[in-house]
Amino acid sequence: MAYVRLRDVSVEFPVYNVGSRSLKKLLLNTTALGNIAKDAHDRITVQALSGISLDLDHGDRLALIGVNGAGKSTLLKVLAGIYEPTRGRVHASGRVSALLTASVGLNPDATGRENIVMRGMFMDVHPREMRARVEEVAAFTELGHYLDMPVRTYSAGMLIRLCFAVATAIPPEILLMDEWLAAGDELFLAKARGRMEHLITGSSIMVLASHSLPLLKEWCNRAIMLEGGRVVAAGSVEEVAALYQRGGQG
Amino acid sequence: MPDTAPSEPIDRLLPLAPGRARLARRDLAEGLRRSWMWWALALQDIRLRYRGSALGPLWLTISTLVMVVAMGFIYARLFQTDTRSYMPYLTVGLIVWQLISTLITDGCQTFTASEAVIQQVPIPFSIHAYRVVCRNFIIFAHSLVLVPIGLAALRIPVGWRAIEAVAGGAVIAVNGVWIAILLGMFSARFRDIPPIVASFVQVAFFVTPVFWPIEALGEYRGIAEYNPLFAAIDVIRAPLLGQATAATSWPVLLAATVVGCAVSFALFARFRSRIAYWV
Q1: Which of A226, B11, B258, B265 has its CA 20 to 30 A from that of A220?
Q2: Is residue B39 a part of any domain in this protein?
Q3: Which domain holds residue B100?
């Protein structure tokens, strides 16, 4: 059974400016006494998440609500196991699939088909097994012969089709989604919706970050609201959404 | 307050946070276990790099061949040795040097080149390092075909010593992994590392006995004997040419391996969790 436990999780994000990215400058500064503290550590630390505790169990459909920069994407990356928190503990079990951005680690020089196989690999599916599924994924994208062309020749809409199909090819137990689907064309969106519903019902845990409250209300059964990296509200989607809207107006 | 009051005691659900060293060991072992993954990624890299070229990685073999022939005649005169013994020495030296130098320069890109993947999917970081090593060994294998051809053409017998060269290759692979992890991390954090490393490698090519005989140093041959880059070349080159390796080569190479692995592991354990933030 899939589950996720976060205990007092904090993420501090170092933002390196040009200077602190250079070893030469670091060394020069160490020799030029006096500037060490100021320049060698001339980096801004962003507190992206602080003290988040969260329990997710089978059947949970969590909505992440919050303004831009509230920490929604960072939290998704922590849940996906991409970012290890700087403090706190994460314990999770279950196959995770994260649909975080539209590029999903596609290789621009490889063809659509190759990317399908490659993405499968990153999800721990052997290429042999994945090749058997390629046709199914290819059919879903409706990209036809474009699938034999390098991905860098694709339009934005085509990329989204491919990414979505590829990322959802293997049903995950824990599904994490950031809002990015909106860029697809109407026809594809309707199709994606069908697949998404199928995927959501198939997954054990789902976390969706979005600004679209109707979408969240439709698909989620729990919600938390983030503000400045902290959980400021939690409860049913209606309650939290109402709170969010009030905050937006006031 | 968030409704996160746990229904079960937390301690039962959360095992004590594993130490950094254990996480790093697990990362390395998990990566190794998924050999099919980095093998497939390495093949894919090569396929993409040489897409649209009829000869593929064999281009590199041809450029090595051209270099060997051009340099062979001239430098054999310069060093006043006969071409027949200098040519194989130069060929194997250059081929092994290409392996070592690309392991080092490519190692700088271990994590930055895989940024898109690291930011999207959680897979062991070591996989990126294994991929770099695997990719460069596949390219090395392409150049290596020149060796049996050359040896046969010059009628140099290949003896049992050649097995020693295989062992040398294996040790170089281990070194490749720590180099890829160490330089990969440094380069992710400090973006001016790759050009620094590239110029270091260029200098190293001239001060290491790759294309000139170590005997030319006379009483100063110690400078080269304690150079781990020479040791790495020697353990492959000497056995292939039916000669004994220099007495210092294996000890120097193994010492470099142990020290390199230890330093690299310590830093990997310490900073592994930061790589995703750096790239």
Answers
A1: B11
A2: yes
A3: 17-278
Counting the structural domains of chain B, the total is: 1
- Which amino acid, B88? P
- As a whole number of angstroms, the distance between CA A242 and CA A246 comes to 6
Tokens standing for residue A176: 């994490």
Examine residue B82 and state whether it is found in any structural domain, yes or no: yes
Q: Which residue has the tokens 């092994």?
A: B96
Distance CA A49, CA A230 (A): 6
Residue type for position A72: K
The sign of the CA dihedral B17, B20, B21, B22 is positive
Bridge partners of A20?
Answer: none
Q: Judged by CB atoms within 8 Å, which residues 28-67 of B form the interface with A?
A: 34, 36-37, 40-41, 44, 48, 51
- Check: CB of residue A105 under 8 Å from CB of residue A82: no
Give the torsion sign (CA, A220, A225, A231, A235): negative
B1 part of a folded domain: no
Please tell me the distance from the alpha carbon of residue B263 to that of residue B259, in angstroms, as a whole number.
6
Nearest Cα to B156, choosing from B266, B218, B77, B242? B242
Residue B56 lies in a domain: yes
Q: What is the pLDDT along chain A (250 residues), one digit of tens a residue?
A: 788 999 899 988 777 765 566 676 666 655 544 344 444 455 667 788 988 999 999 888 899 998 888 888 899 999 988 888 888 888 888 888 887 776 656 788 888 888 888 888 887 888 888 888 888 888 888 888 888 999 889 887 888 788 878 777 777 888 888 876 655 566 777 777 777 777 777 778 989 888 888 888 888 889 999 988 899 989 998 999 898 888 765 4
Q: Is the ipTM of this complex over 0.95?
A: no
Q: In chain A, what residues touch B7 (CB-CB under 8 Å)?
A: 55
Q: Do B4 and A124 touch (CB under 8 A)?
A: no
CA distance linking residue A181 with residue A160, whole number of Å:
7
